[in-house]
Design a protein that fits this description.
Elements (H helix, E strand, L loop, with lengths): L3 H12 L2 H26 L1 H4 L5 E8 L6 E2 L5 E13 L14 H18 L24 H11 L7 H11 L8 H16 L7 E5 L3 H9 L7 E10 L7 H4 L2 E3 L2 H6 L10 E3 L2 H5 L1 H5 L3 E8 L4 E8 L6 E4 L3 H40 L5 H6 L6 H13 L9 H17 L5 H10 L16 H10 L5 H4 L6 E7 L5 E7 L14 H8 L9 H4 L9 H10 L9 E2 L3 E2 L7 E2 L6 E2 L1 H7 L2 H13 L5 H14 L27 H6 L8 H8 L9 H12 L3 E3 L4 E5 L5 E3 L4 E4 L4 H16 L15 E7 L8 E8 L6 E7 L10 H14 L16
Parallel strand pairs: 2-10
Antiparallel strand pairs: 1-8, 2-3, 3-4, 3-5, 6-7, 8-9, 10-18, 11-12, 11-23, 13-16, 14-15, 17-20, 18-19, 21-22, 22-23
C-alpha cells in the first residue's frame, strides 16, 4: 500500500530545501536575463547598438599616362614609377576627446610626418601655392590681385604685408613656438595647403618620389597620420630631351582655360595637361582613365573598409613617324654649319668680331650681368673687377629700375664697353668661367693667353653656341618627309629647349626665365610655325604653272635681258645675263628674268589681264600644298587669314590683311621668284617638294605611325591622298631635270661636289630686310631616280658671306646622315644643360 503521506512529506522537504530554492531562483534569474537579452538584442537591437560615426571617401588613383615612341620604338616620353605622399583635405581629424583642439591635432600629425621625412632624408614638396618668401624680410611672390585672392581664401586682412600675413598664419594655426624657423615655415605651408583645399575633394601632394624606407615608416604610423596616404604615381621623362621637344611637347599643371574646356572629361585642378606637341594634341588618348576607390573611414580618419574599387586604365601608347636618331643628326647638321659661319668670321675679323660675339652674348642674357654685380672679390675676382668698373663709370641705379630694366641697362652698358675696348675680352672670358659657362681647363694651353684663340676653341667645343651668341645667322629649321606616305621622318628646330626642365616635379625657374628671355626664341616651333619667304625654291611652281597653261613648253627659250622692266618698279634683276635659256636651265641657274617673264605672260596670254597671272599661280600654289593645313597633328602656323582666304601670296589675302589696298603687276613678278608676299613654313614647303617628287600626288602629312590602345588593339595610320594634280609627264620631267641640273651644274654644284647620290634640289635666297642678311633655303627630293624622301631647309638670315649657301651645306649634312655617307656622328655634347 502506497504511503502518500510519506511521499508528500519527502516532496515538501525537497522543495523547502534551501538548495532547491536557490536553484529555482537562479533558474528564474537566468530565464529573465535570457529573455531580457533577447528583447534588447533581437527585438529592440537596432535601437540599442552604439553608433560609431563613419563616412565614405572617394580616392582617385592616377592612371599611367600612355608613352610615346619613335618609329623604331625608341622611347621619347616615358613614365618612371614612384611613390608620392598625398593629403586628403576632406578627412577631418578627431578633436572631441581630452583637451585636444583641432590645431593641436593637425599640428601633431603634420609634425610627425615632417619628422619621418627628415629622418629618412626626404624632401617635402607641397603642391599648393604659398606666396610668402622663405627668407626674411618676408615678401610676396605674386601680383596684387593674386595676393588679395589668397588672403581672402585664408581669412587674412587685405592690408597686411607679407610679414604681417605670415604672423597671422602662425597665430591662426597655433604653430608651436618651440620649433625652429624652418620647421615653423614648413608646418605653416602644410596647414595653408589644407586650409586652401578644405572644400575640395582633390588630393594635395606633399612629397614626391619617396624611397621604400620612408614608405614603410609612414605606413607604420598610418593611424596617427589620418588623411595622409601613400600613392603609386609616375614621373614623366623625355629621354631625347631638347631634340624632340618641338614635336613631343611636355606636361604642365592644367590651366584655367584647359580645365574649363575639358571639364566634361573629369579633369580637376590637380591634374597635369599637355602643354605643347603630341602631349597636347593626344592628351585624351594619352591620359588614360583614373581609378576610383570608395573607402569607409571612422571619425579618426582611419580606413574601416573598401566599399568599391575600379582600377585605373593606362593611356594609349603612341608611335611617331619620326626617327629620333636622324632627328638628332639633323640638329647637329644645322648647328655645325652655324658654328662654321661663326668661326670663319672670327678667324677673318679677329678681335673686332670677338668683341661683337661677347657683347651679343651679354645682350642675349647668356652671361648674367646680375651675377657680376653680386660678385665678391674673394671668390669671383674677375667679375668683381668688372663690377668695380661699372660702379665707377655708370650711373645705373637698381633702386630706380625694375629687375628686368636694371639687367637690360647693365647688359647695354657692358656690351658697349666691350665693343669700345674698355672692358677687355680676357675679362669677359674670365667672367664666363666664373659663371660656369665655360671650362678653361678644356682649352689648349698656350705660352701667352690669346682671347681670340681661346674664343675659337670655346666655340669649337660648343661651350658657346650660335644660340647663345645670337648673331645672324643663329637659327634654322629642317623637315624630311617620306614622299610615299606623307610621314615626317625628321622635323628640327634650332635652337630648342629641354622640356624635362619644365615638368612640375623638376621645374627649373632659372631655366624657365632664361629661355623666356632668350632673343633666339628656343620655344618657337620654327619648323611648323615660322613663315619666311622661300626665294628661288618657289620657282618650280611658276615653271609648272606656265607649262601647264601653255605659256611655254619644256623646250621654249627666253633671252635673259637681266632686268625685267615690264611690270614696273621695283625692278627684278639677275646677276648677269644667262643668254637664251629654257625651263631646265632656268631652274638650274635660278634665272629671275626667265620666271618674271613667264609669270607676266601667264597673265596676258589669253585675256591680257595681269591679275589672271597671279590667279593661275595661286591655283598651282594651293594644288601643291600651300595655303592649307599640312596634316600634321600638332599646332602649326595659320593657313587662313582674315575673311577665310588661304594664307598665300594672293590679292585676296593681301587686301584682307591690309598689306595693300590693291594688287599691282610688280607684285606678281616678285611672287613668281618666291619673294614679295610669299611666306611659308619649312613643313609646308617640304610638302610642295614631296608633291613635285610624286608627279602631282599630294599626301596628307602625319607624325603618327600607330596607336597601341590599352585594350590591346592597334590603330595603324594609312597614307591619305589629299589631291591629285594632273601634270603632263613631259612637264614634271622638265621640272625634275632642272632640279637635277641644279646639283650637277647649277647653283648647288659647289655644295654637292663629289656627292655620290644624284638628287633633285633647288637653292633659294630671299631678300627681306636691307639691314640683315637674306634668308637661305634649300628644298628637293632624293634619290633622283627613285625618290624616297623630300626635304626643306630654312636658315633665316643665313646668306652669310662667310659661308655661302648655308642651307645647302646643312642640306648636304642631312643627306649624308640619312644615307649613311661619311662620318655622321654627333659632336660632343658640351654644355647642353640650360643653354
Amino acid at each position: 500500500m502506497i504511503d502518500y503521506k510519506e511521499i508528500f512529506s519527502n516532496i515538501l522537504r525537497f522543495i523547502t530545501n534551501r538548495l532547491f530554492v536557490l536553484t529555482v531562483l537562479l533558474g528564474l534569474t537566468f530565464i529573465y536575463l535570457v529573455s531580457t537579452l533577447f528583447e534588447l538584442q533581437i527585438v529592440q537591437g537596432t535601437y540599442h547598438v552604439p553608433v560609431v560615426p563613419t563616412s565614405q571617401r572617394i580616392i582617385f588613383d592616377n592612371a599611367p599616362r600612355g608613352e610615346i615612341f619613335d618609329v623604331n620604338g625608341r622611347p621619347l616620353a616615358i613614365n618612371i614609377p614612384i611613390f608620392t605622399v598625398s593629403m586628403d583635405p576632406s578627412i577631418i581629424f578627431d578633436v572631441s576627446s581630452g583637451s585636444q583642439n583641432s590645431n593641436e591635432a593637425l599640428n601633431t600629425a603634420f609634425l610627425l610626418f615632417m619628422s619621418i621625412m627628415e629622418n629618412n632624408g626626404q624632401e617635402i614638396n607641397i603642391d599648393s601655392e604659398f606666396l610668402i618668401s622663405t627668407t626674411t624680410p618676408r615678401t610676396f611672390s605674386a601680383s596684387l590681385p593674386t595676393q588679395r585672392r589668397w588672403k581672402n581664401d585664408l581669412g587674412i586682412d587685405e592690408e597686411f604685408n607679407a610679414a604681417e600675413s605670415y604672423e597671422a598664419l602662425l597665430a591662426r594655426f597655433e604653430i608651436p613656438q618651440n620649433l625652429t624657423r624652418d620647421e615653423q615655415f614648413i608646418l605653416v605651408q602644410l596647414r595653408t595647403a589644407l586650409q586652401l583645399q578644405r572644400w575640395n575633394v582633390n588630393q594635395v601632394r606633399l612629397a614626391l618620389d619617396i624611397d621604400h624606407a620612408t614608405v614603410a615608416a609612414l605606413e607604420e604610423h598610418g593611424t596617427r597620420l589620418a588623411g595622409i596616404r601613400i600613392m603609386p604615381d609616375w614621373l614623366r621623362y623625355y629621354p631625347e630631351g631638347r631634340y624632340m621637344t618641338n614635336i613631343v611637347g611636355y606636361l604642365r599643371p592644367i590651366n584655367a582655360a584647359d580645365l574649363a574646356s575639358n571639364a566634361q572629361y573629369g579633369y580637376t585642378a590637380a591634374d597635369l595637361f599637355g602643354a605643347t606637341g603630341i602631349e597636347r594634341a593626344f592628351e585624351h588618348q594619352l591620359r588614360g582613365t583614373r581609378g576610383e576607390t570608395i573607402i569607409e573611414i571612422d571619425n579618426m580618419g582611419r580606413r574601416v573598409g573598401v566599399i568599391n574599387q575600379s582600377p585605373p586604365v593606362a593611356g594609349d601608347d603612341i608611335f611617331l613617324t619620326i626617327d629620333s636618331v636622324l632627328q638628332r643628326q639633323v640638329y647637329y647638321a644645322i648647328e655645325d654649319q652655324l658654328v662654321t659661319v661663326l668661326l670663319n668670321r672670327l678667324r677673318s675679323q679677329q678681335t673686332i668680331f670677338a668683341r661683337e660675339i661677347l657683347a651679343s652674348t651679354i645682350r642675349s642674357n647668356n652671361i648674367n650681368s646680375l651675377l657680376i654685380m653680386d660678385a665678391e672679390q674673394t671668390y669671383y675676382p674677375i667679375s668683381f673687377a668688372v663690377q668695380t668698373f661699372i660702379n665707377s663709370n655708370s650711373d645705373i641705379d637698381p633702386d630706380d629700375l625694375t629687375t628686368t630694366a636694371y639687367r637690360t641697362a647693365l647688359n647695354n652698358f657692358i656690351s658697349e664697353n666691350i665693343l669700345n675696348g674698355r672692358i677687355n675680352l680676357g675679362q669677359i672670358i674670365g667672367v664666363m668661367e666664373e659663371q660656369d659657362i665655360i671650362d678653361m681647363v678644356q682649352i689648349a694651353a698656350s705660352p701667352q693667353f690669346n682671347p681670340v684663340g681661346a674664343l675659337i676653341e670655346i666655340i669649337e667645343a660648343r661651350m658657346l653656341t650660335p644660340q647663345m651668341v645670337n648673331i645672324d645667322p643663329a637659327t634654322g629649321s629642317a623637315v624630311i618627309t617620306d614622299i610615299h606616305t606623307g610621314a615626317l621622318i625628321a622635323a628640327v628646330n634650332y635652337p630648342t629647349f629641354n622640356g624635362n626642365h619644365l615638368l612640375p616635379h623638376s621645374f627649373d625657374l632659372a631655366y624657365f626665365h632664361q629661355i623666356n628671355n632668350d632673343p633666339s626664341r628656343p620655344q618657337y616651333e620654327r619648323a611648323f610655325r615660322e613663315m619666311q619667304a622661300p626665294g628661288s625654291t618657289f620657282k618650280m611652281i611658276t615653271g609648272l604653272a606656265a607649262m601647264s597653261q601653255g605659256v611655254i613648253s619644256p623646250s621654249s627659250t627666253i633671252f635673259d635681258n637681266v632686268v625685267f622692266r615690264d611690270a614696273g618698279v621695283p625692278y627684278v634683276h639677275c646677276m648677269g645675263s644667262h643668254g637664251l635659256i629654257n625651263i631646265v636651265d632656268a631652274i638650274a641657274v635660278s634665272c629671275n628674268y626667265f620666271f618674271n617673264r613667264v609669270a607676266w605672260n601667264l597673265g596676258n596670254h589669253r585675256t591680257g589681264q595681269t591679275l589672271e597671272g597671279i590667279a593661275t599661280l595661286n591655283y598651282y600654289m594651293m594644288a601643291l600644298g600651300l595655303g592649307s593645313p599640312t596634316g600634321i597633328e600638332i599646332s602649326e602656323a595659320p593657313t587662313t587669314v582674315a575673311g577665310g582666304f588661304p594664307n598665300i601670296a594672293s590679292p585676296e589675302a593681301v587686301v584682307a590683311t591690309g598689306r595693300s589696298s590693291t594688287w599691282r603687276d610688280g607684285y606678281t613678278t616678285h611672287v613668281s621668284i618666291g619673294q614679295g608676299f610669299n611666306a611659308y613654313t619649312a613643313t609646308s614647303m617640304a610638302k610642295v617638294m614631296a608633291t613635285l617628287a610624286t608627279g602631282g600626288t599630294r599626301l596628307e602629312m602625319t607624325l603618327i605611325s600607330r596607336i597601341n590602345h590599352s585594350d590591346g588593339t592597334v590603330t595603324l595610320l594609312e597614307p591619305y591622298i589629299e589631291y591629285e594634280l594632273e601634270i603632263q609627264p613631259e612637264h614634271i620631267n622638265a621640272i625634275h631635270q632642272g632640279m637635277l641640273a641644279t646639283q650637277t651644274r647649277g647653283t648647288a654644284r659647289g655644295v654637292f661636289a663629289g656627292f655620290p647620290i644624284q638628287i633633285g634640289v633647288k637653292s633659294g635666297t630671299a631678300e627681306v630686310d636691307t639691314a640683315r642678311l637674306s634668308h637661305s633655303s634649300y628644298g628637293g627630293f632624293a634619290p633622283f631616280d627613285n625618290p624616297q624622301i623630300a626635304f626643306y631647309i630654312m636658315m633665316p638670315h643665313g646668306d652669310s658671306p662667310f659661308l655661302r649657301s648655308l642651307a645647302g651645306h646643312v642640306n648636304r649634312g642631312i643627306l649624308e646622315a640619312y644615307f649613311g655617307i661619311g662620318n655622321t656622328q654627333a659632336p660632343p655634347q658640351s654644355n647642353l644643360g640650360i643653354h
